[in-house]
Every structure is written in C-alpha cells, then in structure tokens.
Write a structure and sequence with these properties.
By secondary structure, the chain is mostly helical. It has a domain of about 110 residues. About 45% of the residues lie in helices and about 10% in strands. The chain has 8 helices and 3 strands, in the order αααααααβββα. A 3-stranded antiparallel beta sheet has the order 1-3-2. α1 packs across α2 and α1 crosses α7. The protein starts with about 25 loop residues before the first helix and ends with a helix. The N terminus and C terminus are likely disordered.
C-alpha cells in the first residue's frame, strides 16, 4: 500500500519556528524511514522513539562538524545508521513505499511527526547499540544513559559546565 504525505503535515508551533536543519515533509519521511528501517517488525513504541530521538539529539546537541547541520545530513552521514548505509530490506520498503508492516510504518510516521513538531519529547542519547556489538568508537567520550528494547543507549559526556546549564534548562 502507498502512503501519501501532505507537504504541510509537519506544522511547527510558535516555539519551534527556528528549528535549524528541519525541512518539513522531506525530513518527516526520512526520519520515519530511518525509524522503520532500524526497527524490527516487533519493536515497541519506546524502542522506535529512542531510535528517532538519536537523530534529533545528534542534530541539536552537538557541533555540525560531528553529525551535519541538517537532519538529512545526520541521517545520511556514512555509517551513522546501519539500515541506511546498508540499505536493508525495510529501508528498501521505504524507498518503494510498499510496506510489509503497515502498522509499524504508521507508528514510525506518528513518532517522527511528534518529534519534529515538538509534541513528543525526545529520549536522551545519540547512539543505540546492542550489548553484543562493539563498534569502533571513542568510548571515553560516551556514557551509558539507559537501556531500551535490548539496546544500550549512549550519550556524549558533557563537560561539567554544560551539564549544569542543561540541568537548569539553558
């Protein structure tokens, strides 16, 4: 089944007017596609939310030289997301718009839309990694911030001054 996405589906509210790096319907489809492709058919809502949150956390919390300055750059950075880099079967479904898991696809669209509109709060973390995987990363810069759906969730360690500002909501 094909799904049409209205161009104005992602409407930003007043406090999101200056969301740098987000370009409405294109970003909605690409973020939903990444969530769908990275998640298994039986993934739960919280696991998919965690996957979508990593992209926004990469975009908004760190320097553009690390991840890029648009959501598209974040998603398509080489080796950033396994499903995109390796074009797995679920990723190809999003390109063909023929979904074997329609309920899952609709949930991914809902999550992506909520994250981009600000009606769903992103979960913490920039990376989700299965405990059995050991990717080549600088582990000294990362801290474990949670475990969701069989994944360990990691975030960059922040310098003490940034942790204080973030705790105060600055």
């Amino acid at each position: 089944m094909r799904f049409a996405i209205p161009v104005l589906l992602v409407k930003r509210n007043a406090n999101e007017e200056n969301m740098p790096g987000v370009e409405s319907s294109r970003d909605l489809y690409e973020l939903a596609s990444m969530i769908y492709a990275e998640s298994a058919k039986d993934s739960d809502y919280k696991t998919r939310l965690m996957m979508g949150s990593t992209a926004l956390n990469r975009l908004y919390n760190y320097a553009p030289e690390n991840f890029g300055d648009t959501l598209y750059d974040v998603l398509y950075k080489p080796n950033a997301y396994y499903a995109i880099t390796n074009q797995n079967e679920r990723w190809l479904e999003t390109r063909n718009r023929k979904f074997t898991d329609e309920r899952g696809w609709k949930q991914c669209l809902q999550i992506a839309s909520g994250l981009l509109r600000g009606t769903i709060k992103p979960l913490p973390g920039q990376f989700f990694i299965k405990p059995s995987e050991k990717p080549d990363m600088n582990w000294k810069l990362l801290e474990l911030v949670g475990k969701i759906g069989g994944y360990n969730v990691y975030a960059y360690k922040l310098p003490k001054a940034q942790r204080v500002r973030r705790a105060k909501g600055e």
